[in-house]
Amino acid sequence: MSSLTVTDEHISAKPAKVIQPVWVRVMHWTNAFAMILMILSGWQIYNASPLFNFSFPREYTLGGWLGGGLLWHFAAMWLLMVNGLAYLIAGFATGRFAKKLLPITPTGVLHDVRAALTFKLSHDDLSVYNYVQRTLYAGIIVVGVLIVLSGLSMWKPVQLHWLVTLFGDYPTARYVHFFCMAAICAFLVIHVLLALLVPKSLRAMIIGR
Amino acid sequence: MAKRSFLIPGVDKRLLIKDSIKTMPDVTRRRFIAGGASLGALTLLTGCDVVDSSSADALLAKISKFNDAVQDFIFNPDALAPTFPESAITKPFPFNAYYDLDDAPEVDGEAWKLEVRGLVDNKKSWTLPELTKLPQFTQITRHICVEGWSAIGSWTGTPLRDFLKLVGADTRAKYVWFQCADKDGYNSPLDMRTALHPQTQMTFKYANEILPRAYGFPMKIRVPTKLGFKNPKYVVSMEVTNEYKGGYWEDQGYNSFSGS
């Protein structure tokens, strides 16, 4: 644990540089808000016709009933999609994706996963992502794109039938949508845990430095 | 902060709750009745209502209207719902309604007449033998329920647009509004562009057999470009109108366009 928590000495010693530019911070928290609305309302919708032998507890659903859950889901989707699209465009246009997330090499990933599991992965320089971070952040962007595409194909299976074909058929798109949600929830747990273990990374996402 | 129930304005809360709890397991039912249909998780996470329920309701209703407009805009009248071979048909095809099969309407086919009202030249009512004389087509399409499940079925009948032409309907009107024989009176508006879609059908047969009671005898409107609840069964009248007259589920908060 002690190797993961880093003191503030490094930062206060030299002039603080901006780690997370303002557009990243705004879009990050907008996405977090929209994503939570989507997940909680999505669980409400799932409960109307569960894919598996379980339902989500009512306390963790949004909307009160199926109709309410759908209203929330189809409202929050605009926030999620507009913000997500802007993030993708900005990420590519500013070169942030290329700079922060690439390259991802198998040896690098293996090395850093081993280091992380033995609590030896350091976060000395917050502006450089290690290979575990790169893999998770690039991966979650792909999952984000997939969950929107599978969602759109469930919303408009006739108008966007070519999109449905991409997933196979309508029921398969439903499963893809579900598993993407599961992946995002798993990411959320790890992401929040790690942010709490390295508080200055959380601070950087709030005030930028 | 007092808890306020999350419901759509104008909806009979007790009726809605009665409908919803039917589908819930016992424990959930009790909790639901005790807690009301609140914002649930958000309230739980923050310990108070993060948003005033009634203003959230109003905003959500507004966004749903916006979604109607978006869906109308992207609706392509020539885009056909995928069709399937007979081998793909879901067996048994599920019965689905807000009541049990035992409570489904029993319509007397001999006495039944389809009433045609509103902006049409010929307001004559149609008997079942008169209607089934019209040219019929069979299509095997996927029925998608608002709940998420789907099933493939085979429906046979007359394209609604041919019938609208036959009765001299004003196809510039905004809606065709259907009324049904379901208990509590089911109804649903269909936007004119969807009514004129080549696959929108007045259905008299399921799987090449006379439409059984479970699937809407004597007539169902099969709309493969809409969610299931916009496919009314046991239809008794249609009205061509410019007025938005609401619908059984639409009034309770389901998105009105609900197109696929």
Q: How are the secondary structure elements laid out?
A:
The complex is a heterodimer of chains A (209) and B (260).
Chain A: H1 9-13, H2 22-48, H3 66-93, H4 96-101, H5 106-117, H6 131-155, H7 161-167, H8 170-197, H9 199-207
Helix pairs in contact in A: 2-3, 6-7, 6-8, 8-9
Chain B: H1 13-21, H2 26-35, H3 41-46, H4 53-74, E1 113-118, E2 126-127, H5 128-132, E3 137-144, E4 150-159, H6 160-166, E5 175-180, E6 187-191, H7 192-195, E7 201-206, E8 209-210, E9 220-222, E10 235-241
Parallel strand pairs in B: 1-10
Antiparallel strand pairs in B: 1-2, 3-4, 4-7, 5-6, 5-10, 7-8, 7-9
Transmembrane segments (chain A): 26-46, 66-90, 136-155, 175-199
GO molecular function (chain A): electron transfer activity; heme binding; iron ion binding
Domain Cytochrome b561 bacterial/Ni-hydrogenase (chain A): 21-206
How would you describe what is shown here?
The complex is a heterodimer of chains A (209) and B (260). Chain A has 209 residues and is mainly α. Chain A has one domain (9-207): Fumarate Reductase Cytochrome B subunit. Helix content of chain A is 70%, strand content 0%. Chain A is built from nine helices and no strands. Chain A has helices spanning 9-13, 22-48, 66-93, 96-101, 106-117, 131-155, 161-167, 170-197, 199-207. In chain A, α6 crosses α7 (161-167), α6 runs antiparallel to α8 and α8 packs across α9 (199-207). The radius of gyration of chain A is 19 Å and the shape is globular. Chain A starts with 8 loop residues before the first helix and ends with a helix. Chain B is of the alpha+beta class. Chain B folds into two domains: 13-74, no CATH class; 86-252, Oxidoreductase, molybdopterin-binding domain (Sulfite Oxidase, Chain A, domain 2, Alpha-Beta Complex). In chain B, β1 and β2 (126-127) form a beta hairpin. The radius of gyration of chain B is 20 Å and the shape is globular. The N and C termini of chain B lie far apart (40 Å).
